[in-house]
Amino acid sequence: MATLMGSESPCTGGKRRHCTGNIVTKFTASKITGQGFSRGTQLPGGLLQERDKRAKWHGIPALLQRLHESSHPNSDLSQAHSFLKVLSSQLSMEAMSFVTEDRKTAQESTFPNTYTFDLFGGVDLLVEILMRPTLTMQKKKPNMNDDLVKDCLSVLYNCCICTEGVTKSLAARDDFVLFLFTLMTNKKTFLQTATLIEDILGVKKEMIHLEGIPNLSGLVQSFDQQQLANFCRILSVTISEPDVGNDDKHTLLAKNAQQKRIASPSRAEVNQVTLLNIPGFIERLCKLATRKVSEATGANFLQELEDWYTWLDNALVLDALMQMATEEAEQSSTESSDESSLATSPLRHRLPQSMKIVHEIMYKVEVLYVLCVLLMGRQRNQVHKMLAEFRLIPGLNNLFDKLIWRKYTASNHVVHGQNENCDCSPEISFKIQFLRLLQSFSDHHENKYLLLNSQELNELSAISMKANIPEVEALVNTDRSLVCDGKKGLLTRLLTVMKREPPDSSFRFWQARAVESFLRGATSYADQMFLLKRGLLEHILFCIIDSGCTSRDVLQSYFDLLGELMKFNIDAFKRFNKYVNTPEKFQTFLTQINSSLVDSNMLVRCITLSLDRFESQTEDVKVVEVLSECCLLSYMAKVENRLAFLFRLVNIINVQTLTQENVSCLNTSLVVLMLARRKAKLPFYLNALREKEYAEKYPGCLLNNFHNLLRFWQRHYLNKDKDSTCLENSSCIPFSYWKETVSVLLGSDRTSLCAIASYIDEPYMDLDKDLLED
User: Fold this and answer.
1) Highest taxon of the source (predicted)?
2) What is the number of helices (H) and of strands (E) in the chain?
3) What domain count does the chain have?
4) Residue 440: inside a domain
5) Is 369 within a domain?
6) Which of 61, 80, 484, 699 fits a disulfide with 48 by CB distance 3.0 to 4.6 angstroms?
7) Could you tell me which residues come within 8 angstroms of residue 508 by beta carbon, excluding any fewer than 6 positions away?
């Protein structure tokens, strides 16, 4: 702490560094022990002034003393405000440097003024000043000047971002956190309050109970649209389950153990219900998500947008400038639901068009995130019904070309990771959040047909009629008044931009996931043909074989989409064979599949299931023709190739490494064995696994591992209704047959030719028998 120490001591006339060091040490220790000096107001003013220059405190401890003395309960606080303004000016420069430069770890040497302010009790003093009206016994609560409140909040926020530990100490004070929400009722202090709350909740150990906020429903209903959009930034922290690592990478063993420890429902789930019970909440979010913004024109728009974003690195600065414009435009108390209030602002010509667009985009990101989380929660059906009723999908469709995917945006050329929390531009975040919402909206839900327009729904009906198959019930029940307007539905627009993406663009990952979710569930021939007619299969194959794409995430999403698109569809396999028309192309395709079976195993499962069905339809001339000509079906028809896939699927996973991402390998291996069991060939496959073990000189290793995996499968799936339904729908194999096959494989009778135990020699039995023990 060299910046706080002088050279000679006023106490002894000797070296000064010991006395100052003791002051700092005592304050630091008091924060830990709660004993001794806790703030600068407890020290003599003369001592503070004497030590100030050499310790480089810049008069902050003395100013804090004056602030304390002038902020007693009976004062009008005007003098206190003047002292606070002086302090604020000293601290704001450090905060601005933190925002505009590369953010560094908050530490004393980087931000000495903020550190000194906190060290001498400034943070605690401001909290006392803010909360003082709530502590009075008088019936009439004293009103605090709005500017004073704003300055207190701004200084606290500056301390949070510049000094380590301040945010956590504020987060530990539940009374202060709940009090902050009451300040949001005042529009003049709303922005500073929201920003501080967002920072505090981000580090709070325990998730806040929304129902504990005084009059939450009235508070939310009092917000104008801009305030509500800002509030969504806060809500996102309160309705999302705590992050326990990357969802796909976190092991299922750890997840299952965590679920046992966490009470149900979780705080996040309770908070979701609290929000849904607020009258008009979802309707207003839908209006926010779909309201129009002014369109930007001109060739320099992109550069202008990126330049502004580089400077406006956080929402605080951007919102502050937008608030300046809004305040100058306020001639009446009437609040507009769109940007029209800004159109009359004297500052309008001083605010670049791009800033207003970024402003709206950043809000839409937060709103879409909240809607997406609610769509994935336990109240999914209720949320779906409201989103349909308030025409969210048609509204997004109308924004697609003008805002969501403008033709002249360069963001779609940025290769970036698929983590939705990544540090990327608003445009990229907006696109990804939009695609995640579509994925959640379509996934295993009949409302997915709202992504089409009336003409496209009629096309689906015509496909079913031509194929002489009944229409899907969900299609018949779709309310035509709630579907997309215009010449194209949202799904078709998505396909169009998907084909234009650069090969390794991470947007391809999210685009493919969104389209795949439309196909997931019970296989629909009409849905597949709708997409096949728009060239989707050829586009996917080009991406896998000819584009030079090397991104594993993108390739995995395309393998999964290809599997859903081709499953049980003979026309799709015919189209595949037409595109993959040379041995070289087919070998490239196989190389991509084999390069990472974790990524491609869903496609392997699709081919295996489809082959099994086609082999039972030999009375159909078209099927027989495709079976004999299709290189992909011919390849999978060879038992040695199916066994090779089975060996690798069982070998690349074990119970300790199972995740949501690779558990599909276990289910694909089960599909291979279930189909073998139907044809009474299960013993042949199990014996082949045993022979493979001995050939590799690891007897018992493969089969013991598979035995442990199946034991885990029973624990995991027999308690998860949703997962079991997904398995049944995706394979068209009754879940009862899944359970029965696993039970047969795990049978303890060593004389049974269908039990794994029969193929493990006695010395190698139960090598890992304790792996699943709690």
Assistant:
1) Eukaryota
2) 40, 0
3) 1
4) yes
5) yes
6) 61
7) 498, 501, 543, 549, 551, 554, 557, 558
